[in-house]
C-alpha cells in the first residue's frame, strides 16, 4: 500500500487499525474450521454520498463563477449534515451487524484560508468534514465498533472557493474503505490496493490532462478459520467506455485470486445495462441479490444529490458478487425506505434528509467447505463461460443451452430459470453499450493462480446508454480541474 493510500487515515484511525503496512488486523478468531460445515459471513456495500451535485461545475464560465460555485457546493455539503448522516448509517450497520463492510465515497473535505487558488498544489489541510472518522465515531457510540482494515484513496483535487465572502481553497479527497466489525470472528491477515490503468481523462490546457483515477482495495481474511478474499471498488460514473475497461481490469485481478471471493462495490452499472461492467463481472461471479432475493427489485440508486428530494430509486448499481464456494442465503437493503430519512437542524434550519443518495446492500453468505471448478451447487451458477477480448475487441460472456441445463441441475429451479433466460437475452449485438477498445489490464493483483468460478447473468430487459449522476464525487472532479486550468490560462 502506497503512502497515498494511507495518508488519509486520521491519528485515531491509525491507532485503531494498527500501523503495520499490511495492517494485520486481529479480531477474535478460532482455529481451523470444521471442513464438514459451512461458515456464515455477513457483508455489506455502502456508498456514503457526498451531499452535493458537482455537475454544476460544467456550467462554470469564469474564475469568479468557479469560486462561487465551489463555495455553494461546499455549503451544500455542510447543509447535508454529514455528521447526522454518518450517525444514521452507523445505526443501519449496528442494526444489521455485517462482519465486513465495503464503503465508497468516504469523502474528506479540507480547506485552506486564505486560499492561493490552488497554485501551490494539494496543500489544504484544515479538516472540515471527514466522513470516515464521523462514521467510525458514530459506530463506537452505537456499541458496534468497526476497525478500519484498508483505505484506498482515489481522486484528490483542490480548487479556489468563495465561502461567506472569504476566498478559500477547498480540497476534496475520495476514498474507498474496508471496515471489519470489532467483535466479528474475522481476522484480516493482509491488505492491498490497486489503481486502474484506465481512467477518465479531461483535457486541461494545451498539453495536459487530468486523470480521474479509481481503483480497488483487497483484504485477505478468515471467518471462523475459513479463508476468503474480499474486494471493494467504485467504478467510473461518467464514461461507459472507461467503466467497461475498468471492469475488464478488475476481472483480471479477480481471476488471479484463488478460492472464496467476495466483491463489494458501487459498479455504476447493473442488470439494466446490457453488455456493460456488471455483465463483465457476473460472467465469473454470482449476484448475491439474485441468489437470495429474485422476487425483489433491489434498487439502490439514486436519490437527489443534495439528499433532500422525494425521488424514487430505479436502478440497481450497488452489488455483492461471489464465487468459489460462497453462496448468498439472504440479502436486504438499508437506507432505502422512507423510515431511513433523518430529521436534523443545520445552521438553525430544520432539514429532512436521506442518509445517502444510494441504498446499501447487506448480504448473508455461506462460505462452503470446498471450491468447485465446474458447476457450483452452492452458488447456483455455471463456471463454463466463453469470452473474447484483446486490443480493440469485445469482452462478453454467454451461457449456452447446455450450460443452462447444467445450472438447472446444480441449483434451484428459480435460479436455473434466471440463468436460462439470461443465456438467450445477452447477445452483445442487442445492447446499446459499446464494449470496443477494451483490453485486459496489467493491473497488479493480490494473489496466485486463477480458479474457475460460477457465472451469473442479468434477467432484466431495461437498457440505458449512460449513468449520469451516479457517484458524482469523482466523476466531476476532472471536469472541475479542466475548468480551473482553462480559466487560469485565459486570465479571466
Task: Please explain how this structure is put together.
The protein has a domain at 39-367: Endonuclease/exonuclease/phosphatase (Deoxyribonuclease I, Chain A, 4-Layer Sandwich), CATH 3.60.10.10. It is built from eleven helices and 18 strands. The protein has helices spanning 3-6, 11-17, 63-79, 82-96, 131-142, 240-255, 277-282, 288-292, 401-410, 413-425, 472-490, and strands at 39-47, 100-104, 108-112, 126-130, 146-163, 166-181, 186-195, 200-204, 208-212, 215-223, 226-234, 261-266, 286-287, 318-323, 326-334, 342-346, 349-353, 360-367. Strands 1, 2, 3, 4, 5, 6, 15 and 18 form an eight-stranded mixed β-sheet that branches. Strands 7-10-11-12-14-13 form a six-stranded mixed β-sheet. A hairpin with a 2-residue loop joins β5 (146-163) and β6 (166-181). Its cofactor is Mg(2+); Mn(2+).
Amino acid at each position: 500500500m502506497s503512502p497515498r493510500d494511507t495518508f488519509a487515515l486520521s491519528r485515531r484511525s491509525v491507532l485503531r487499525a494498527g500501523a503495520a503496512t499490511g495492517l494485520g488486523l486481529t479480531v477474535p478468531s478460532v482455529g481451523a474450521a470444521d471442513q464438514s460445515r459451512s461458515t456464515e459471513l455477513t457483508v455489506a456495500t455502502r456508498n456514503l454520498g457526498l451531499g452535493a451535485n458537482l455537475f454544476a461545475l460544467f456550467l462554470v464560465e469564469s474564475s469568479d463563477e468557479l469560486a462561487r460555485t465551489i463555495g455553494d457546493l461546499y455549503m451544500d455539503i455542510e447543509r447535508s449534515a454529514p455528521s447526522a448522516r454518518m450517525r444514521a448509517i452507523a445505526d443501519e450497520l449496528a442494526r444489521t451487524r455485517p462482519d465486513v463492510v465495503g464503503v465508497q465515497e468516504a469523502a474528506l473535505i479540507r480547506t485552506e484560508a486564505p486560499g492561493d487558488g490552488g497554485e501551490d498544489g494539494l496543500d489544504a489541510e484544515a479538516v472540515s468534514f471527514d466522513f470516515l472518522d464521523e462514521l467510525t465515531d458514530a459506530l463506537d457510540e452505537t456499541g458496534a465498533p468497526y476497525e478500519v482494515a484498508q483505505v484506498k484513496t482515489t481522486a484528490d483535487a483542490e480548487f479556489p472557493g468563495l465561502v461567506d465572502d472569504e476566498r478559500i481553497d477547498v480540497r476534496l479527497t475520495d476514498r474507498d474503505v474496508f471496515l471489519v466489525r470489532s467483535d466479528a470472528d474475522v481476522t484480516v491477515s493482509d491488505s492491498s490496493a490497486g489503481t486502474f490503468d484506465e481512467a477518465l481523462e479531461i483535457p486541461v490546457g494545451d498539453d495536459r490532462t487530468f486523470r480521474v483515477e479509481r481503483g480497488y482495495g483487497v483484504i485477505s481474511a478468515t471467518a471462523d478459520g475459513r479463508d476468503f478474499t474480499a474486494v471493494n471498488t467504485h467504478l467510473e460514473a461518467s464514461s461507459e467506455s472507461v467503466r467497461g475497461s475498468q471492469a475488464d481490469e478488475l476481472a483480471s485481478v479477480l481471476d488471479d485470486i484463488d478460492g472464496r471471493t467476495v466483491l463489494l462495490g458501487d459498479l455504476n452499472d447493473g442488470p439494466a445495462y446490457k453488455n456493460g461492467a456488471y455483465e463483465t463481472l457476473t460472467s465469473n461471479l454470482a449476484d448475491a441479490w439474485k441468489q437470495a432475493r429474485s422476487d425483489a427489485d433491489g434498487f439502490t440508486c439514486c436519490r437527489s444529490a443534495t439528499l433532500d428530494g422525494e425521488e424514487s430509486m430505479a436502478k440497481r448499481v450497488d452489488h455483492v458478487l461471489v464465487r468459489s464456494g460462497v453462496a448468498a442465503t439472504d440479502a436486504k437493503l438499508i437506507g432505502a425506505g422512507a423510515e431511513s430519512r433523518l430529521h436534523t437542524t443545520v445552521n438553525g434550519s430544520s432539514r429532512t434528509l436521506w442518509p445517502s443518495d444510494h441504498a446499501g446492500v447487506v448480504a448473508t453468505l455461506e462460505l462452503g467447505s470446498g471450491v468447485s471448478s465446474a458447476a457450483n451447487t452452492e452458488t447456483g451458477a455455471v463456471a463454463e463461460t466463453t469470452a473474447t477480448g484483446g486490443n480493440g475487441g469485445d469482452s462478453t460472456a454467454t451461457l449456452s443451452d447446455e450450460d443452462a441445463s447444467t445450472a438447472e441441475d446444480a441449483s434451484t429451479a428459480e435460479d436455473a430459470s434466471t440463468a436460462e433466460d439470461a443465456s438467450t437475452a445477452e447477445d452483445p449485438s442487442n445492447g446499446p453499450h459499446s464494449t470496443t477498445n477494451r483490453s485486459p489490464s496489467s493491473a497488479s493483483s493480490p494473489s496466485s493462480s486463477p480458479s474457475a468460478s460460477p457465472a451469473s447473468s442479468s434477467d432484466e430487459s431495461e437498457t440505458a446508454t449512460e449513468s449520469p449522476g451516479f457517484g458524482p464525487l469523482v466523476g466531476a472532479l476532472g471536469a472541475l480541474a479542466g475548468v480551473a486550468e482553462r480559466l487560469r490560462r485565459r486570465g479571466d
